[in-house]
């Protein structure tokens, strides 16, 4: 850049010196020339040829940024593009969910119970089982299935299945019950002798799963159901009533079966020690739950 400036200055100096020489020479010619009259102005000369391109000047300083213009109007909607190439087939994604089958199971004692547990939407998972509030005994776990052999009453309860996956843990609960047909745990003796004008309670108790319902019937040509309180499951027999004597049937029923026992009630007019001895003998051979009733009846006779 400095060399160019120097060159330009030298050219300017040469041009000025050249003009000065031409001016001096013209002045000398005028002085030596004899004085003449001014001639008629000649025609304008032809335009000279274009001079050489001058040297490019220095780049000017960058101007200030102009103001942002206003937003133009919305253009017309373009034409619909062509359909793209069909992509590869996608994979089916199923949300993770744990399932157990069956949710609740009932088996008879000695049978085998199996619960199946699996996770949907996740191929990699670890399945474990445990008994809530107890110890998992006599059981095996294979491919997520819990197998309990020879089910006993100790196996009754709830079981939790836990699935550990790469995204967390899932849990679900199933329940095991034992099916048991009704069985009497307490029942009156087969024969009860009562003094005329007295009352006695005939009580039955039974167990089973599901719990059985206790009902009393009067054995006649057609059995007649007698309402009883399901809490104490006792039938009150009053010998003052007509036809109080006869057979009474206690029946324990559930959807798994029934059990029944028959008690014969005899009303007698015997008095004194004879009735006391008969009553005492029946109390000895009857169950403990009826012992109080027998004792109460005997005491009444002694009075």
CATH homologous superfamily designation of the domain at 181-268: Immunoglobulins
User: Which sheet architecture does the biggest sheet show?
Assistant: 5 strands, mixed
Structural class: alpha+beta
Tell me the strand percentage band.
35-45%
Shape: rod-shaped
**Uncertain ranges:** 285-303
Q: Give the proportion of residues in helices.
A: 10-25%
Order of helices and strands: HEEEEEEEEEEEEEEEEHH
Mean pLDDT: 80
Query: Can you tell me the CATH class of the domain at 181-268?
Result: Mainly Beta
Gap between N and C termini: 149 Å
Looking at the overall shape, the CATH architecture of the domain at 181-268 is Sandwich
CATH topology of the domain at 181-268: Immunoglobulin-like
Task: Fill in the keyword field for this structure.
Ig-like_dom; Roundabout-like 2; 37% strand; alpha+beta; five-stranded mixed β-sheet; 303 residues; immunoglobulin domain
Explain this structure.
Among the domains are: 97-178, Immunoglobulin-like; 181-268, Immunoglobulins (Immunoglobulin-like, Sandwich). Strands 2, 4, 7, 8 and 11 form a five-stranded mixed β-sheet that branches. Strands 9-16-15-12-13 form a five-stranded mixed β-sheet. A four-stranded antiparallel β-sheet has the order 1-3-6-5, with no helix packed on it. The chain is an alpha+beta fold. The termini are far apart. It is 18% helix and 37% strand. Strand 5 (139-142) and strand 6 (145-148) form a beta hairpin. The chain contains three helices and 16 strands. It has helices spanning 2-32, 273-285, 291-302; strands at 97-101, 104-108, 113-120, 125-131, 139-142, 145-148, 157-165, 168-186, 191-195, 199-203, 205-209, 213-218, 224-226, 234-238, 246-254, 257-268.
């Amino acid at each position: 850049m400095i060399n160019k400036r120097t060159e330009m200055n030298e050219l300017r100096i040469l041009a000025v010196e050249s003009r000065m020489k031409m001016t001096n020479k013209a002045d000398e010619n005028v002085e030596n020339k004899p004085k003449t009259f001014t001639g008629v102005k000649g025609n304008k000369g032809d335009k000279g040829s274009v001079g050489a391109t001058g040297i490019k000047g220095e780049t000017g300083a960058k101007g200030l940024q102009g103001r942002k213009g206003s937003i133009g109007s919305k253009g017309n909607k373009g034409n619909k593009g062509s359909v793209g190439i069909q992509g590869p087939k996608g994979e089916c994604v199923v949300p993770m969910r744990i399932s157990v089958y069956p949710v609740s199971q009932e088996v008879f004692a000695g049978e085998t119970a199996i619960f199946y547990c699996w996770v949907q939407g996740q191929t990699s998972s670890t399945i474990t089982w445990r008994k809530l509030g107890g110890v998992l005994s006599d059981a095996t776990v294979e491919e997520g299935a819990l197998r309990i052999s020879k089910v006993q009453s100790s196996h009754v309860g709830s079981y939790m299945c836990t699935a550990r996956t790469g995204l967390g843990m899932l849990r679900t609960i199933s329940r095991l019950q034992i099916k048991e047909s009704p069985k009497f745990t307490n029942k009156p003796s087969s024969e009860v002798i009562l003094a005329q004008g007295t009352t006695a309670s005939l009580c039955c108790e039974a167990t089973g799963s599901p719990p059985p319902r206790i009902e009393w019937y009067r054995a006649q040509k057609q059995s007649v159901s007698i309402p009883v309180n399901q809490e104490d499951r006792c039938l009150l027999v009053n010998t003052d009533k007509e036809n109080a004597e006869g057979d009474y049937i206690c029946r324990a029923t559930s959807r798994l079966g029934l059990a029944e026992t028959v008690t014969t009630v005899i009303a007698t007019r015997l008095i004194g020690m004879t009735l006391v001895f008969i009553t005492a003998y029946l109390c000895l051979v009857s169950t403990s739950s009826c012992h109080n009733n027998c004792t109460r009846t005997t005491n009444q006779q002694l009075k």
